[in-house]
Amino acid sequence: MRLIDKYLYVAYNIDRYLCEVSVLELNEKKMAEIFKAFCDENRISILKLLSTGEKCGCKLLEEINVTQPTLSHHMKILCDSGVVVGRKEGKWMHYSISSDGAEIAMECLQKLTKITCWDLDKPCPEK
Prior knowledge:
The chain is elongated. Helix 1 crosses helix 4 (68-81). It is of the alpha+beta class and 127 residues long. The protein has five helices and six strands. The relative contact order is 0.15.
């Protein structure tokens, strides 16, 4: 995926039969969804665990000491943000950090926090 401006990114989906390019809008709702993933201590712990590679849900349960429904709640938020992806194997889900999702989150933060001086000659209006 590639950020093409402050609110749009291009997602490439390539398989044997299809090469598809779509433009997805990063509106305020999607941005909030991305940053929500980073706003909880348990989700930060999960991301730290996943930074060393794919982990089974059962391993995450052991490491962060939460109930299965609580883990599912956190994983849904992480997956909805696009920062984490999951795949089912048997009865367990295996999770990993999405390099594309992480890149979009980083670029989104950079774009939102970048200060641009587009008109230095024009003073701020006084109240």
